[in-house]
Amino acid sequence: MAGGRPEGGASGGPGVESHKDLFTQLCDWSPIGYAVFDIDGRLIELNEAGVRLLGGGSRSEWVGQSLGPLLDPTQSERVLRHLQEACDGTGEAREHPCIVNVFVPGEQGGSRRLQFFSRPHPTGGGRLCLTAFQDISAEVQRRESERQRQAVLDALSAQIAVLDATGRIIAVNEAWRRFARGNGASSELESGIGLNYIDACCDVSAEDPDRLAQRSAEGIRAVINGDAPLFTLEYPCHSAQSQRWFLMSVTPLGRDFGGAVVAHMDISERVHAEQASRRRREEVAHASRLSSVTVLAASLVHELSQPLAAAQLYSEAAATLGRQEPLDNAHLLSVVGDMRGQVDRATRIVDQLRRFMRRGEIKKEPSRLEERVLEAAALVAPLARRKRVRLKLDLSSEPVIVRVNPLQIEQVLVNLLCNAIEAIELADSPVRNIRVELERLAEQVRVTVADTGPGLDPEWLPRIFEVWETRKESGMGMGLAISRTIVEAHGGRIWVEPGANGAVLHFTLPLHDEGDPA
Amino acid sequence: MNQSPVVVLLDDDPGVRRSLSLALSLAGYQVEAYATAEDLLRGLDPSQPGCLVLDLRMPGMDGLEVQQALGDRGCSLPVIFMSAYGDIPTTVRALKAGAVDFLEKPFSTESLITRIEEAIAIDRRQRAQKVLRQTIIERAGHLTGRETEVMQLVTAGLSNKDIARQLEISPRTVEKYRARVMEKMHADSIADLCQMVATSPGLGARHPE
User: Fold this and answer.
1) Would residue A372 count as lying in a domain?
2) Closest Cα of chain A to B1: distance in Å?
3) Range of the domain at A93
4) What pLDDT, in 10s, does the model give residues A386-435?
5) From CA A397, how far away is CA B4, in angstroms rounded?
6) Model-level pTM?
7) Per the count of CB atoms within 10 A, which of A273, A321, A507, B133 is most buried?
């Protein structure tokens, strides 16, 4: 050791002497501090590294000093006890090094953490000890951040596994362990650490119709290899008690280490909510159709009962005529013809209703808009007649071709017409007209439905197309929301003309380009 | 009374109107068919016997309003309503206003005829009663004041003795009046006389205290 000659050091030839010098140099280069302390905690010898670790200065300044001034009283006491135990070889110091960690002031006002390993000085007579000390701040920090990371991982509700570059699980969080426990995994599977995740995925691939496991394995591999920045997969994982869905997401762990983080998040609640809202939307769409149908039903029943009543009476009359002597064939045939006419009439009504009510997506096709208007008008005509409302159709003379789902467009028109009839009826308007107008614009057609009802309440106007807005018990407001959905799905727009007399609703539809494939 | 009954139809639907007319004509009825309430009210002769078959719901004046208008004119022809579906309030209103029956369309000729027969029978009975009432009132008009008093007391169930005491005449005189009442009223028995008084409001006995 530099600047001192240990008593009773090995003596020998110059070769040995030079080795000693080399060791002294080596000691000074080392990042580890080496020191001799006496039983009172005073430094007897110290290498350069030791000086650096204790905060610098010159070696001679340190000799004879204790560490006391560096330390707070508690730490100071611990260090002194440590050194005393090391000196007299009590405790376990004779067999094992005594270890103590202390904070000493470091650079920039921080502190560094030193770890002391001490043994009795072989010839110190119980009054000296040999001590090696090193800066473990980085190690402590690493362990600390490791602990923090784990705490953060454990705090997450997602089940997380950290994989190394080969796909081996190197860490899992509490949620992962809990899930494994919940699914009755054995204790080694519970942590899963050491298992190769990718291999595990491949193992279950056999009994996996959707190839979920295989897709997961491929996704993880892609992320680990840096081919993909992210891999996600939603999958069902139902148990006997409940329907569950999970979202698996795989992100790279970081370039230096390779590997990936696999998180499984329970998204059942979201999926349930989505399913519920999808069901709700479908119900709303269906309910709107049904509410229109309900409104129409009364008049349709009436409308249907007329031809049925007539057909029945004609058929009975025909039977009577058939029994008469002499047989009046001409009369009989004309009655049968009348009967047939009534049956045809009933069939047309049923056809209209059936087409209106049929559910399911029908694809868009080029269609003549004026035909759609006529169909819709025919459907509401009985209702209009009953409410003494006149429908005026102002259709263009040349065909207006739009590319639409014909039934949906009819549904929009029926909704608007029913609304208009209801409005006129509720207000008991003296003038009872509805005007439907088609106007060809540059690349679209504008449909106008105007009624002579009381008009729309300006307060209600901004929300008129919202799903649950309705001013009538009939639930027609819902029809407007559906109408908007349909019109917008066709690339059109629906709006209310502000400040008009009566309610004036417009919607547009893009014209079908004749050049388009059908 | 000797006129044959007429079935009066009202339906705005030409198919229903024509088929009904045909079916009823073939069944032997005299049919008068109208397309609108206004035509019916203009064309109907309330004195002709028969019945009405009205569509309940029609644009403009509906069946109920026709029934009401006819009632206001003192026409008591029985009404059969036809409807696609009779909602309960409408049904109740119609029945309160004296509808004989409801038929939901479609219906068979037979079921309609059954109801028409009932309606015509009701009409016939009503008309007969009306005639009878008029006859009774006419006969009662020939009774003297005392005879009327005796008739009222007799039909109230008092004995000759009680009547004599109340009118302060002899039972023998009561007996004489009573015989003359029976004769003038063309009554075969006391029960017969009671029935006449009961069916002709206005002749009813004042209750003895």
Assistant:
1) yes
2) 30
3) 14-135
4) 888 999 999 877 889 998 888 788 888 988 898 888 888 888 888 999 99
5) 57
6) 0.43
7) A507
